[in-house]
């Protein structure tokens, strides 16, 4: 177990290093950093000086080592556009994105799970077909279109919910702002969370349905039936329990992708999170923010993967530690 | 028939629903209205708060609520006293400014002549984007605590025209905050002035999160007469047009800028909102690269078709500006013959070349391009009102005379990085808008029409490098001419030369379009600055 | 990759796969349960017909469409904002109305769908070829090769599709310069979307190969001295084609939506040659002002297209999964 954890850790570190390399190459070679920093009236001498100061004349591997060293200390330099330290900018935007992502994930789970169970148990009822149809429409409509339509209906025409932003936020301990404690913060969350969570919801629903169908065919469910257990006990005591492990795993893995997909939702709802910051950075070629964002997302993913791997081993001793069958 | 009636019924239901919603939201938000906080949303972000970092209308306008210049401009843009109570020209080379007494900065420091001298030095320092505000060779001396004298090397009758956006900073505060130099992008440790503000104006900044939210509070002891009734202002950037309009309609904000032209009707039809429109002083124009010997984006090799005035005129006459203004701008733009708005300079007998496709074809054929040619066009897509749509319309109009235009529409950051000096003026054909900061023709000529070299010495925003020594000569005479009638005549001469040889294609003067809740009164100034001290929430 | 030498092997991969899997499997398919389940699912038949109609309409857009929206000389700004023909102000020449530039919405949808479908198919093909090849190699060869490929897959998984696509697009844009970019935008989009989707194929194929490789027929094939490449493509590949086909179908819908999203975010195809996503982005600006047809019709088309393809994918997955029958 311990050796396995160490091995996975080393692999995770390797993955991070590769991402760091991509991020560094982008930082260094996509557009000239000096051109990004200076104004119209900067002389060639000043440019050369700046180039020297920034260490752009050192060998590339030295620059990369410096980049990794700084990244490890969360030092990503100054944003070209906003002129604040990137780490500080991301830290101030992180709570907004994480809150939105977690609320979306919970929404997706709470709605997707029962729908999945129902459609799995009663394959051919009208309601099942309706749920499946809704889920298909859900994944066939692009996120941005759903967001716009929700705003159009619930903010403009009905006037029930705010159309943009986070509402009022409360600062906790000086480093975290939360919208979960105020009424306006909570109502502001509804539309973006639904928009962002809809895709994951359909994913979970279909996953649960598939798993339920598989489990219900297994021998031990048949035995349970033969033993005369009640439908309820079989469905929820046995079948659902067995589907939960993969569902929770997938949901966990999806959190990273929810965070990434929040780029679109945050754009539509003007949600002041990292995604919006990233998109603005892409539009303005603000490379330090782009590089830092990529590293952060990669880090979150690697972390989640790592935890899921460990949990798997802890939960299911049948999984062989390392090595491949081939 | 069925479908139509269904749709109209659905629309009716939606309208009814929005009436109910209006009542609901009014109740929900009345609590907010009580404390008289103006909620304002703009399409762009407010970044650094250093008043010398960025020479851009919106940023300067927002900072104009907090900082003040020696002069100010009234609702109709006439120059009025600001931090200087009065001024006089002793002779063409010596100006004297009498400073207002008893004015305090937000931190309580008194405003004195030392602050003016410090600000003059700071605005010329490295990293400042506002260096053109005062002549670099001017000499500033303190006569007494409330009198300043400026000595010039050459006469300059419009010296103070742009001083309403040259904001005076507190010397002691800047020194204490380590902000004696303007914060430029290359500083790795930007001074606090980048995030804080300390001005003499009617508002102070309580908190500032770039790209998220900026909170203004009313300053308790401002020297001027208070016209507004606000307790404060919350500013939020909302980039998406649809979201911004939705926020206004749903009552989440009181004021938005801009309202997309196509949404003006909708904003006006809502019982709680209305659009505030008026002519803006910005003129949108097209420019040609006349410096390159060969256009890299063109299929014509070995020569540059744009060097021929007849080719430029052919393109001019192929463009139906009336159609663009009617359809793309929905009537909210006025075609102009010159690169300056008619409010700032009367074009008199100078008229636009008429739209005439046949004449354009003939001009092209006579110039040696009977089958037309191809060329690439650069266009911003988030800077001016419907900029990309205008460019697209131009593309299809030019296609009708055989000129194939490959459009490259980009966000303004990338667009400006390509077409301005740092990008090496890399454009063959472009769309640009210009508002003269001094509201005067000299600014237009010297920025857009005087010769320049590759590095941008000369007319810095003359992207195409149009060059006629006669125009340069006229510009030199205009800046020192103190007789108004004679000066106007020289200006007219310069514009006539430019029109005759189609230096640029002036398109139109776009309109301002703000959207507001009906309970808000605010003055809209033609330079598009949003000034909260003229706002009243009822 | 010791068993492959560039282009030659790629071509061989295609031929081999086509031979066995294509003809043989297809013939088997017709008299199989799959064909039976197809005929007995009206929804699937409907989806197949709709997909076919849309693909054909897009393919023959130059013949079917009443106007050519990509020819700037043929459009006039004065034709802009006509509502659909059944509305009061509708113009008979423009069935679904016109957009902000005076382009016929119906024609623009047909031409736009062409781009959306082309990007979709090409990127799925790219992802499939890349993923299947790497998955086969990883599973069959094993060892260090396997580890390297799967670690690359891990890194790739680290970036969600939309982020990978944004990244590749941004880098290409910066490197090519804007004018050149417009010429290669199609390729960049295919690359950006294709590269974000290969991992799924690789993982699935590798998993199946691990199972198949230890089966007796593969061992037998090895014993009689067949070359690994032959074994892989002739014997192993046909057995994993089912899941690959399912992934490909669902990915096609995803690819079309991803392209639309990229275009909506403003990094996709230029607005002079709009895809469905670009059309929705343009029309989005006019949704509040009452010109709903500019965004709603392309939106509906996109949704129907994605829905039909998804339905086919769903059916295919259920049909190929014997446990569910």
Automatic annotation (TrEMBL), chain A:
Transmembrane segments: 12-30, 100-118, 130-154, 186-208, 244-269, 289-312
Subcellular location(s) per record: Cell membrane
One annotated GO biological process: transmembrane transport
Topology relative to the membrane: Multi-pass membrane protein
Residues annotated as domain ABC transmembrane type-1: 94-312
UniProt cross-references to Pfam families, sorted A to Z: BPD_transp_1 (PF00528), BPD_transp_1_N (PF19300)
CDD domains xrefs: TM_PBP2
Transmembrane helix among keywords: yes
Protein keywords: Cell membrane, Membrane, Transmembrane, Transmembrane helix, Transport
Superkingdom, taxonomy of origin: Bacteria
Gene Ontology CC terms: plasma membrane
Family: Belongs to the binding-protein-dependent transport system permease family.
Name under which the protein is recorded: ABC transporter permease
Organism: Allomesorhizobium camelthorni
Classification lineage: Bacteria, Pseudomonadati, Pseudomonadota, Alphaproteobacteria, Hyphomicrobiales
């Amino acid at each position: 177990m311990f050796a396995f954890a160490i091995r996975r850790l080393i692999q995770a570190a390797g993955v991070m290093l590769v991402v760091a390399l991509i991020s560094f190459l982008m930082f260094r070679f996509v557009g000239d950093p000096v051109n990004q920093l200076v104004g119209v009236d900067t002389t060639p001498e000043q440019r050369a000086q700046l180039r020297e100061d920034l260490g752009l004349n050192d060998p590339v591997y030295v620059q990369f080592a410096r980049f990794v060293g700084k990244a490890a200390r969360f030092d990503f330099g100054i944003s070209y556009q906003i002129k604040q330290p990137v780490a500080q900018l991301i830290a101030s935007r992180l709570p907004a994105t994480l809150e939105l992502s977690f609320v979306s994930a919970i929404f997706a789970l709470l709605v997707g799970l029962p729908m999945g169970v129902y459609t799995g148990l009663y394959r051919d009822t009208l309601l099942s077909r309706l749920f499946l149809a809704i889920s298909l429409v859900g994944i066939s409509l692009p996120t941005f279109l759903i967001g716009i339509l929700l705003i159009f209906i619930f903010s403009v025409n009905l006037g029930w919910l705010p159309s943009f932003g986070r509402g009022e936020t409360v600062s906790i301990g000086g480093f975290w702002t939360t919208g979960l404690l105020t009424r306006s913060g909570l109502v502001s969350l509804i539309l973006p969370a639904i928009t962002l969570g809809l895709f994951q919801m359909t994913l979970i629903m279909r996953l649960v349905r598939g798993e339920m169908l598989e489990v219900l065919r297994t021998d031990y469910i048949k035995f349970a039936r033969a033993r005369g257990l009640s439908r309820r006990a079989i469905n929820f005591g046995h079948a659902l329990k067995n589907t939960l492990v993969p569902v929770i795993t997938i949901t966990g893995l999806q959190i990273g992708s929810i965070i990434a997909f929040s780029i679109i939702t945050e754009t539509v709802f003007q949600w002041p999170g990292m995604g919006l910051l990233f998109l603005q950075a892409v539009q303005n070629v603000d490379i330090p923010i782009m590089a830092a964002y990529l590293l952060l997302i990669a880090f979150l993913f690697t972390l989640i993967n790592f935890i899921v791997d460990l949990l798997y081993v802890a939960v299911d001793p049948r999984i062989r530690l390392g090595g491949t069958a081939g | 028939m069925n479908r139509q009636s269904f749709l109209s019924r659905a629309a009716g239901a939606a309208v009814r629903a929005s009436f109910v919603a209006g009542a609901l939201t009014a109740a929900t938000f009345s609590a907010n209205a009580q404390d008289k906080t103006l909620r304002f949303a703009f399409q762009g972000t407010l970044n650094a708060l250093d008043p010398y970092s960025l020479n851009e209308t919106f940023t300067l306008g927002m900072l104009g609520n907090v900082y003040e210049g020696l002069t100010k401009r009234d609702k109709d843009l006439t120059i009025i006293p600001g931090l200087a109570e009065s001024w006089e020209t002793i002779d063409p080379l010596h100006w004297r400014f009498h400073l207002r007494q008893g004015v305090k900065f937000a931190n309580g420091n008194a405003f004195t002549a030392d602050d003016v001298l410090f600000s003059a030095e700071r605005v010329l320092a490295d990293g400042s984007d506002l260096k053109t505000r005062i002549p670099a060779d001017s000499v500033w001396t303190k006569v007494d605590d409330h009198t300043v004298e400026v000595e010039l090397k050459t006469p300059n009758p419009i010296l103070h025209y742009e001083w309403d956006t040259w904001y005076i900073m507190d010397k002691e505060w800047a020194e204490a905050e380590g902000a004696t130099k303007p914060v430029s992008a290359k500083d790795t440790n930007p001074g606090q002035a980048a995030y804080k503000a300390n001005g003499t104006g009617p508002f102070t900044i309580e908190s500032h999160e770039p790209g998220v939210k900026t909170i203004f509070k009313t300053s308790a002891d401002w020297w001027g007469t208070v016209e507004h009734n606000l307790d404060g202002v919350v500013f939020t950037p909302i980039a998406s047009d649809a979201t911004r309009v939705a926020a206004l309609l749903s009552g989440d904000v009181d004021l938005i800028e801009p309202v997309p032209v196509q949404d003006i009707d909708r904003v006006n039809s809502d019982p709680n909102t209305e659009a505030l429109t008026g002519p803006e002083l910005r003129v949108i124009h097209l420019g040609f690269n006349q410096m390159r010997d060969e256009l890299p984006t063109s299929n014509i090799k070995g020569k540059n078709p744009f060097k021929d005035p007849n080719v430029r005129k052919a393109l001019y006459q192929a463009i139906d500006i009336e159609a663009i203004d009617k359809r793309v701008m929905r009537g909210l733009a006025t075609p102009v013959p010159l690169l300056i708005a008619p409010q700032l300079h009367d074009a008199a007998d100078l008229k636009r070349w008429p739209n005439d496709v046949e004449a354009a074809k003939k001009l092209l054929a006579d110039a040696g391009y009977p089958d037309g040619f191809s060329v690439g066009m650069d266009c911003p897509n988030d800077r001016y009102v419907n900029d990309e749509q205008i460019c697209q319309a131009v593309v299809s109009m030019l296609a009708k005379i055989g000129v194939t235009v490959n459009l490259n529409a980009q966000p303004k950051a990338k667009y400006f990085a390509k077409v301005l000096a740092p990008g090496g003026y890399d454009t063959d054909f472009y769309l640009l808008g210009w508002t003269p900061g001094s509201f005067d023709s000299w600014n237009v000529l010297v920025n857009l029409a005087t010769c320049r070299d590759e590095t941008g010495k000369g007319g810095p925003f003359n992207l195409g490098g149009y060059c006629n020594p006669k125009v340069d000569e006229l510009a030199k005479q205009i800046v020192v001419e103190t007789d108004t009638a004679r000066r106007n005549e020289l200006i007219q001469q310069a514009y006539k030369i430019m029109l005759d040889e189609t230096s640029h294609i002036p398109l139109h003067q776009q309109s301002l379009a703000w959207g507001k809740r009906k309970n808000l009164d605010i003055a809209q100034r033609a330079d598009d600055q949003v000034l909260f001290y003229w706002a009243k929430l009822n | 990759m010791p068993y492959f030498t560039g282009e030659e092997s790629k071509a061989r991969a295609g031929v081999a796969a086509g031979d066995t899997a294509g003809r043989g499997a297809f013939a088997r398919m017709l008299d199989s349960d799959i064909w039976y389940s197809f005929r007995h699912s009206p929804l699937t038949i409907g989806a197949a017909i709709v997909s076919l109609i849309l693909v054909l309409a897009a393919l023959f857009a130059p013949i079917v469409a009443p106007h050519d929206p990509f020819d700037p000389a043929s459009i006039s700004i004065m034709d802009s904002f006509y509502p659909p023909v059944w509305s009061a102000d509708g113009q008979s020449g423009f069935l679904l109305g016109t957009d902000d530039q005076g382009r016929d919405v119906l024609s623009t949808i047909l031409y736009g769908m062409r781009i959306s479908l082309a990007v979709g198919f090409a990127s799925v093909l790219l992802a499939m070829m890349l993923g299947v090849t790497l998955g086969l190699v990883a599973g069959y060869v094993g060892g260090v090769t396997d580890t390297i490929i799967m670690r690359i897959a891990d890194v790739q998984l680290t970036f969600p599709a939309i982020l990978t696509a944004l990244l590749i697009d941004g880098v290409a844009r910066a490197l090519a310069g804007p004018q050149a970019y417009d010429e290669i935008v199609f390729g960049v989009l295919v690359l950006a979307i294709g590269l974000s989707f290969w991992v799924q194929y690789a993982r699935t194929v590798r998993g199946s190969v691990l199972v198949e490789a230890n089966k007796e027929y593969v061992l037998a094939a090895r014993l009689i001295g067949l070359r690994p490449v032959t074994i892989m493509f002739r014997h192993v590949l046909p057995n994993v084609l089912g899941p690959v086909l399912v992934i490909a179908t669902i990915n096609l819908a995803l690819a079309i939506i991803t392209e639309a999203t990229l275009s909506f975010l403003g990094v996709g195809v230029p607005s002079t040659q709009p895809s469905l996503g670009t059309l929705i982005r343009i029309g989005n600006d006019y949704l509040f002002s009452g010109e709903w047809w500019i965004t709603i019709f392309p939106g509906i088309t996109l949704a129907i297209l994605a829905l039909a393809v998804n339905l086919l994918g769903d059916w295919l997955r259920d049909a190929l999964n014997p446990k569910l029958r």
